[in-house]
């Protein structure tokens, strides 16, 4: 055997051991990539703070214009940056965020308190499939980049409908179909909307960043006569 020929098999063996020992971590990274998620709330927040500020600003302006007062629920509120932005834009709004991740909820509550908004902006743990609020609790519901994570989006929309007041409005921003489909292989957002209990449903292309059609906006309204 030539002098250094043991190096290659040893390197292959070493790499195999490292890969084997980190198998779980590799699987987690794969799942995160497929789900457009990140491994930790802190990592997501760092990225959201630096990349998504412009999106939150546009969404907050739109929701605040339609609802300058009242109660808004944010579903899948993550680290809380949209809710805080919305509260800063509309000083008479009360905002409740709900998220399935307790780490995200802790982070979001810290952000709201740190911004001096702890009285008007609160976050709690909850699943969109079983929202922890009575019927007709909110004037409006907003959600960004969360729908593609929900295991049963139709159930989520039914729950949002239940906690919304009559005439209440919903804005759900999510990845455009061309981004969503490879991740989950599920049906189009418009089909979901059509099967939902809302009286008004519109699906719009939402161009962001710049003119890139990377998002869809699902606008929904609960019927006026539909008293809870
Ligand atoms: C990509 S993050 C988006 C966070 C935030 N809305 C934003 O735009 O930065 C998706 C969020 O949805 C939450 N989520 C996923 N499934 C959920 C469910 N079933 N019910 C409530 N929240 C959920 C996740 O915990 C996560 O915080």
Concise summary:
The chain has 9 helices and 7 strands.
Summarize the structure in words.
By secondary structure, this protein is an alpha/beta fold. The chain is built from 9 helices and 7 strands, in the order H-H-H-H-E-H-E-H-E-E-H-E-H-H-E-E. 44% of the residues lie in helices and 23% in strands. Helix 5 links the parallel strand 1 and strand 2. Helix 4 crosses helix 5. The longest helix has 15 residues. 34% of the residues are buried. The model has no long low-confidence stretch (mean pLDDT 86). Bound molecules: S-adenosylmethionine. The site of S-adenosylmethionine (SAM) has 19 residues, from loops.
Question: Features of this protein?
Answer:
alpha/beta; 228 residues; seven-stranded mixed sheet; globular; binds S-adenosylmethionine
How does the helix and strand content classify structurally? alpha/beta
Fraction in beta strands: 15-25%
Low-confidence stretches: none
Helix proportion: 40-55%
The rounded distance between the terminal residues' Cα atoms is 82 Å
Which sheet architecture does the biggest sheet show? 7 strands, mixed
User: Could you say which small molecules are bound to this protein?
Assistant: S-adenosylmethionine
N-to-C SSE series? Answer: HHHHEHEHEEHEHHEE
Number of helices: 9
- The best one-word shape is globular
**Regarding quaternary structure, how should these chains be classified?**
single chain
* Strand runs, count: 7
Mean pLDDT: 86
Nearest-angstrom radius of gyration? Answer: 21 Å
> How are the strands of the largest sheet arranged?
3-2-1-4-5-7-6
């Amino acid at each position: 055997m030539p002098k250094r020929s043991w190096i290659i098999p040893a390197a292959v063996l070493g790499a195999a051991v490292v890969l084997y020992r980190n198998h779980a971590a590799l699987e987690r990274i794969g799942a995160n990539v497929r789900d457009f998620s990140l491994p930790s709330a802190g990592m997501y927040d760092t990225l959201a703070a630096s990349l998504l500020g412009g999106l939150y600003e546009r969404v907050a302006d739109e929701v605040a214009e339609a609802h300058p007062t009242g109660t808004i629920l944010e579903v899948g509120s993550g680290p809380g940056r949209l809710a805080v932005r919305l509260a800063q834009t509309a000083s008479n709004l009360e905002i409740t965020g709900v998220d399935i991740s307790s780490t995200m909820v802790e982070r979001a509550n810290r952000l709201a308190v740190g911004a001096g908004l702890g009285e008007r902006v609160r976050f709690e743990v909850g699943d969109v499939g079983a929202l922890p609020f009575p019927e007709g609790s909110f004037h409006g519901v907003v959600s960004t980049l969360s729908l593609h994570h929900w295991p049963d989006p139709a159930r989520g929309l039914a729950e949002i409908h239940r906690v919304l007041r009559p005439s209440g409005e919903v804005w759900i921003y999510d990845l455009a179909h061309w981004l969503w489909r490879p991740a989950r292989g599920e049906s189009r957002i418009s089909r979901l909307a059509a099967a939902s209990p809302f009286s008004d449903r519109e699906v719009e292309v939402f161009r962001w960043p710049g003119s890139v059609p990377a998002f869809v906006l699902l606008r929904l309204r609960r019927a006026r006569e539909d008293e809870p």
